[in-house]
Every structure is written in C-alpha cells, then in structure tokens.
Design brief:
single chain; 574 residues; alpha+beta; 4-stranded antiparallel β-sheet; 13% strand
C-alpha cells in the first residue's frame, strides 16, 4: 500500500479512535480481535514494573493514567473503560484499541522494549504452560495457529512453514479487516504486534520446559512492507532425559489408544469448549454493558436537559407572572380611567342635552309662530326656509331626547317598573301604531300567531320603546313591496323570544358586530336616512337592563332579523 506511513509514525498520531473498542463493529458483528488476556497482561505488567521502580501504589496510579489516556481517545463515553474492566480476561477488544493501549503502556513505562518484555513474561499464562508441558517444543510450535486463535480470533492469520527438532519457521499476517483499522499506521502497529508475538514464542522453551529461550531470526516483517511477518526460531533440541522420555511414553500411549489418555483428550476438548462458551458469554455481557451505558447516558442527558428546562421554565414563569401582574395593573388602571372618562362623557352628554333642549324648544316655538303668520305674511322662499329650519329642529330635538335617554339608561338613572305584561297586548299595540308608517312606504307589517297565555315581566314603556325602535329600523331599511314580520316564541324556562324580521337590504358581515354601537350608521344607510345611530344602542341597553339578550342575524340582500329575550312573569303557562 503506497499510502502507508513509516513505522516511526505511531497510531497515537491518529487522534481519536475510529472504531468501537469493544461490543459490535459497524457491521453488527461481535468484536473479538484481541483477547482480554492480552490486554490484562499489558496492564498488570505496567502496574508491576511501576511498583518495583517507584514503590507500592505507583502502579495503580499509572494504570489510572492509562485509563484516562485511553478514554481521551474514545469519543463516545459509552465505551469508556476502567482499570477493573481492562483486567477482566474474558473481555474482547478491537485491534485498534489494543495498539493504542500498547503504545500508551510503552510511553508510560519509558521503555521502548515494553511489548517484548511484557510478552516474554505475561503472554503464556499458567494454564497454557500447564497444558503445554506434556508436549515437546516442536509440537508446541506446530500448535501455534491453534493457540494463536485463542488470543486473536479471526483477526490474525497464523501459519507453520516448517517444524523440525530444534528449528521452526512460523508466519503471521493481518486480516484485511484488522489492516483497515490500522489505516496508514499499519507498519507501526505491525511492529508492535510482531515484537510481542515473537517474544512470546521465544519464551516457550523457557516458560514450559525450563530451557533457554529460543533464538529468533526475522525473515520478513510487515513493519517493513512485507505482507506477513516470518520468524525462524531455534532452540536446544530435546535430549534423552526425563522430558523426552515422558513425551515419548505419552505419544506411545496415544498411539495405543489407552482409555485414560482418551479421557484426557476428551477433557481437554471439553475444557476448550467451556472456554469458548465463557468467552461468548462475556462478549454478550460486554454488549449488554455497552447498551446499558448508552441508555444510561441518554437518560442522564435527558435528565440534565429537563433540569435545564425546569430552571429556565421557572424563570420564564416568574418573568411572565410579573409581566402579567404588571399588565393586569395597567389594565385595571386603564379600565378605571375609562370608567371615569365614560362617566364624564355621560355627564357631559346629559348636561349638554339638557341645556340644548330649552333653546331648541324656543327655536321651534318661534319658527311655528312665524309659519302661522303671527309676525306677518311670508313669501314662498321664507316659508321654505322656515320649514327646513323646523324639520332640522325636530331632528335635533329627537337626537337630544335619544342622547338623554341613553345617558340616563347607561348611568342607571332610568328606573324600571317591571310588571306583568301580556305579550299579545304589547305586540298588537306597537304593530297597530306603526301600520300607517308601513303602508305609507308600501310595506306589509305582520305578526305570526302569538301565545295568548304568555305574560312578560317587564317595564311596559321601555319594552314598547325597544320593539318600536326595531320595527321602525326594519321599515327604514326595507324597500317598497317588502315585508316586516314580528315573531315570538317561548325560549326555555323563564324567557320569551321576540324577533323582528325584514326583507330589506341586509347587513354586510363585517358590520354585524357594530350595529349596536352608539352613533354607528351602516354602509347601507343613505345620507338622507333619518336617525343618529342611537336607536339600536338604546334598545340594547334597555333589553340588558331587563336581564335579556339582543342579537342580529343578517345576510346582504336577504334581509335581517333582530331578536331579543325578555323574562316572563310567574303566571306564564306556555
């Protein structure tokens, strides 16, 4: 690979780890590149040499530093490790993680030969030593691929080129999957793995049979660009001593197929099977640990977010509460001011209207005298002018009367004198009084059948004024040939419903909500149409003084229906 860096560029230059250190890889497969036995060997050896060099406790502190360095290179806290986690021999790790750990151990120990020394002392466990003693050194090297898969399952490829008494040629290569983890730093990682592996192989004669370590000759190395590492190991060939005789007798027994030897073989197979089962169980436990950590991290993050939101929410609630209190106080003050202004307005209207009534009465009197000729004969033009003055004086007088009525009603100065009022009597009286006005305009003024037993509890004069205003309004806005209808019905318990419907021009939707406002004149009102826009406002005030409601329903071009409710007398039987 042309993009590989020289072996002095270590994987630590990479920064953060790219691959999960344990659990499952990006394909969903369990990570088992490196056995936990290998990782524990590194950690324990670092702890031991630090204790020897600096005194008790120094090793534990150095392992803590190692853990901190490793976690600093793992972006996802879910995969952060602890000293106890690293010392668990049943865990499994990625080769990227193992190389980071190996480089950190070398740096922390200050020994560039850390991997070689550690592997010579720690890689061959007591169990491996015990299992290997019945075998010759040559046989042990023949089993190199078998034992290699125990510590680096499916991540390294092991081959035996040749084995003779006193000499073995062994080979090791990375799988493509592991090489991809190393990336451009494959050469440095290969040097790290190669040093540890050949040192462990060289220690076999010494650790298992108490002989001198094997001599190792590098034939090729991946750190120098080769596709594999190949070593030639030589050792002192077994003599005819005790160990040779033991191995020879054991081999003879195996050939003879003695039952106890077959039992031993079966037990060894069972032991290996149990070993794999335990390793699988711990792999599953690692996966569960990762998932639990991830969920715990999510819960903690959510909890922190909720706490932040709660703090922010409490502050916002306080701010909004204070703001609402301030606005409420301002609204109360504004409302009080409006009430005062409304009272001043009502007082002004009442006083002004009252003061205007006397001079208007005087003006009308003088105009009437002039028109009757008391002051002398009038020309035609003078008569026209005086007639106009009288017409406008009458209009102003009506306006003054309406203003006074409305002012008194809103200020509560108009007392109500409610009493039993038969519904047919009220409606018939008002309709009959307005028939001449309807006929004069060419309209039909009618009533639907009335409930003869319905008795209202109302002020006769004030309710007559309400119904009169509504009918006059309907007549005013209905073209000749149209119809104005008065209807009634009982509405629930204790109320009677009255309505005045016409076939007039109707009210635009945007004006429906304004018709009961003081001085409002709709867009359908012609300039010459009499009225100051107070009739409906007076009607609304009087109905509400009785405890009823008033509303309008209208569609342009289809007429309008003004309806209101009035309480009934206790004598109502309908």
């Amino acid at each position: 690979m042309s993009n590989l860096l020289p072996k002095h560029h270590r994987i630590l230059e990479k920064g953060l780890m790219e691959f999960p250190p344990f659990g499952v890889d990006e394909s969903g497969l369990k990570i088992r590149d490196v056995s936990g036995v290998t990782i524990r060997a590194n950690v324990e050896y670092l702890e031991e040499i630090m204790d020897r060099a600096r005194g008790p406790g120094a090793g534990a502190d150095m392992v803590d530093r190692l853990v901190s360095l490793l976690n600093g290179r793992i972006l996802d806290p879910t995969y952060h490790v602890t000293p106890d986690f690293l010392k668990n021999p049943w865990n499994s790790y990625s080769y990227e993680f193992a190389c980071f750990l190996g480089e950190f151990c070398s740096d922390l120990s200050g020994d560039s030969q850390f991997q070689s020394k550690m592997a010579r002392q720690k890689f061959l466990s007591s169990l491996v030593v015990a299992l290997g003693r019945p075998f010759s050194i040559a046989k042990i090297y023949e089993l190199f691929p078998h034992f290699g898969q125990k510590f680096a399952k499916d991540s390294l490829e092991f081959q035996v080129q040749s084995v003779t008494p006193g000499r073995a040629v062994l080979r090791m290569a990375f799988t493509d999957r592991v090489a991809r983890q190393f990336g451009a730093y494959r050469n440095a990682c290969a040097s790290l793995v190669c040093d540890a592996t050949k040192s462990a192989l060289a220690s076999a004669p010494e650790r298992i049979h108490g002989q001198l370590p094997a001599a190792v000759k590098d034939c090729s190395c991946m750190a120098d660009g080769s596709l594999f590492c190949e070593w030639e190991l030589t050792w002192e060939a077994e003599d005819t001593g005790f160990l040779s005789r033991v191995a020879s007798r054991r081999a003879q027994r195996l050939r003879n197929g003695r039952p106890e030897d077959r039992l031993i073989q079966e037990q060894l197979k069972e032991l290996e099977s149990r070993h794999e089962q335990l390793r699988e169980a711990y792999l599953d436990q690692q996966l569960a640990t990762v998932e639990l950590r991830r969920r715990l991290r999510d819960v903690e993050a959510l909890s922190r977010r909720i706490e932040e939101l709660n703090v922010g929410l409490e502050e916002k609630v306080k701010e909004r509460t204070a703001e609402l209190e301030r606005v409420n106080q301002e609204l109360q003050a504004a409302n009080q001011r409006l009430k005062e202004l409304d009272q001043l307005k009502n007082s002004f209207v009442s006083i002004a209207s009252h003061e205007l009534r006397t001079p208007m009465t005087s003006i009308k009197g003088y105009v009437d005298n002039l028109l009757e000729g008391i002051a002398g004969a009038l020309t035609a033009k003078q008569t026209t002018y005086l007639s106009r003055i009288r017409h406008n004086a009458d209009r102003l007088t009506r306006l003054i009367a309406d203003l006074l009525d409305l002012s008194k009603i809103e200020s509560g100065q108009v007392p109500l004198h409610p009493g039993p009022l038969p519904l047919p009597e009220l409606v018939t009286e008002v309709v009959d009084s307005l028939q001449p006005l309807a006929k004069q305009k060419g309209l039909t003024l009618q009533t639907t059948p009335l409930d003869e037993k319905a008795v209202l509890q109302a002020d006769r004069d004030k309710l007559t004024q309400v119904l009169t205003n509504l009918i006059q309004n309907a007549i005013k806005f209905t073209d000749p040939g149209g119809t104005v209808t008065v209807e009634s019905a009982t509405k629930g318990q204790g109320f009677v419903y009255l309505s005045v419907a016409d076939t007039g021009c109707g009210i635009p939707p945007e004006e429906v909500g304004k018709v009961f406002d003081k001085f409002f004149r709709g867009s359908q009102s012609a300039p010459q149409t009499p009225g100051a826009g107070l009739g409906l406002a007076i009607a609304k005030s009087l109905v509400e003084r009785h405890g009823g409601e008033i509303w309008v329903e209208s569609h342009p071009g289809q007429g309008s229906r003004f309806s209101f409710t009035v309480p009934t007398s206790g004598d109502t039987t309908s």
